[in-house]
Amino acid sequence: MQVYGYGAISANDTLKPVVFDRKEVRAGEIGFKVIYCGVCHSDVHQVNDDWGNSVYPCVPGHEIIGRVTSIGEGVTKFKQGDLIGVGCMVNSCQQCEECKSDMEQYCTGPKGATLTYNGPTVPDGSNTYGGYSTHMVVREEFAITIPDGMEPEYAGPILCAGVTTYSPMKHWNLQKGQTLGVAGIGGLGHMAVQLGKALGAKVIAFTGHESKRDEILKLGADEVVVTGDENAMQEKAMSIDLLINTIPYPFDLSIFIPLMKKNSSLVMVGNFIEIPKFVPADLVFNRIEVAGSLIGGVKETQEVMNLCAKHGIRPQIEVIGMDRINDVFTKLRGDTTDHAFRHVIDMESLHTEVAGGEPDAESIEQPTRGEVVGA
Ligand SMILES: [Zn+2]
Ligand SMILES: [Zn+2]
Fold this sequence. Notes:
It comes from Neolewinella xylanilytica. Pfam families: ADH_N (PF08240), ADH_zinc_N (PF00107). It is a single chain. The protein is of the alpha/beta class. The chain is built from 11 helices and 18 strands. It folds into 2 domains: about 1-160 and about 295-365, Medium-chain alcohol dehydrogenases, catalytic domain (Quinone Oxidoreductase, Chain A, domain 1); about 165-290, 3-Layer(aba) Sandwich (Rossmann fold).
């Protein structure tokens, strides 16, 4: 099937209209029309090749909401017309211990989980293309049901920003009445604040920007601390049970360690590259754990989607047309004080562009990364 999208042809390229082929729906898969797609900071990192693993052309997008248009043989969970979501993964081995215990993101199969974009497809190794496109195909296990009462434009960011912060709350067993710290209040952090409150925790938000204080309090945070304010930081000494650090760039972790209680956990979800700076003794004396956590499994993603629907938790969004995508990327590359926490592309803008006659799109192929051994 011929599909239109927006992609980068090489590193640091602006996104341009592209046209490519998607495989037809096979057994166990569903095809859908993309109606909204959130813009995640990872999209910018991947297009920039900030992680050194990007394959081009690169069509990003992993906060995808769509309407089911076709059903493969044997599909039982969905029917035509259903509203669905697809997050960061489209496949995994389904056989390993991790997959069997609903942690597909940590799949230890031959190639691990197949990411929604920039992931080699099993078994042929072709590159995956994401949600900045008119249509997609996914195996039914990786599609999320969008519950009644959840508006489709708000649902996308829950699939990445939501589950990435929810998963550590579940894993480290955040309890009612405990204190959750959230460092960095952007796309991920503003979801973490709301989810922490829904789970009954006291939430302290840490931001570098005094100007964000009122906005963060409106999200439900009990307290807002500006990280540059040493006195305010000191007042929070040994007060936090779980700290989720969403800051997406290298950051001095040592300022947070003194805020942690005994036996507490400081979990990194936003910065993959730099080794955080801290003094091990500060961990040793209070048995503090520094850990990392990657997105969440499919079951957890459905759980957090349902929780958001039930508790009225919504990401703060600004809906944009595809024509504004490069402006948003430029903004995300530089500006960390942006107050619209998540941009969501109204994909009708792309469908309209396509319906208006063949857009001037570059024809691209999905580059193969070699056969996936053992698949
Ligand atoms: Zn993301
Ligand atoms: Zn697996």
